Amino acid sequence: MRLSIQAGDIEIDLEGSTIQIDEQLAAMKGDHTWTVLLERVRVAREGALEAALNAAREAGLPERGSAFKALLENCSLTRKPDQVLGAIHYLRSVEGIEDSPPRVIDGLFNDAGIAPPGNLSLYLNRLKERNFLVVPKRKGEKNRFAILTPEGQAHLDKRSSA
User: Fold this and answer.
1) What is the dihedral of CA 130, 132, 133, 136, to 10 degrees?
2) pTM for the full model?
């Protein structure tokens, strides 16, 4: 087995059995090599995200909050259950987010300048009862992995043409 990682001038190149690699990683954690490497990866990731945001702004793309708010307005989603359905649609279809715990959904509402739903589980469960959302069994049936059903998508489509 081989593990090779390079971040800037730090290069980790380990070879051996799983146990040997685990031992070598443990030693690196002890001398902080691993911590420095992870910090460099974090800084690079933040830089890439900032560059992407700047490029989006320069290209005239709307920011997250205004884009979500525009979705709600264009689809006439004024009721909280419909807004929650719109949030799930936005997070999955626009941002490609599959794991949307309450803080992510609340953050989207806050970014749009709209009061968050409050008891999110209540709204999600009602949307599931109406067959607008489903949670895949392989995800442990946790609401944070909810996806729109064809009926849920049709509901949003109907609202946008109303």
Assistant:
1) 90
2) 0.61
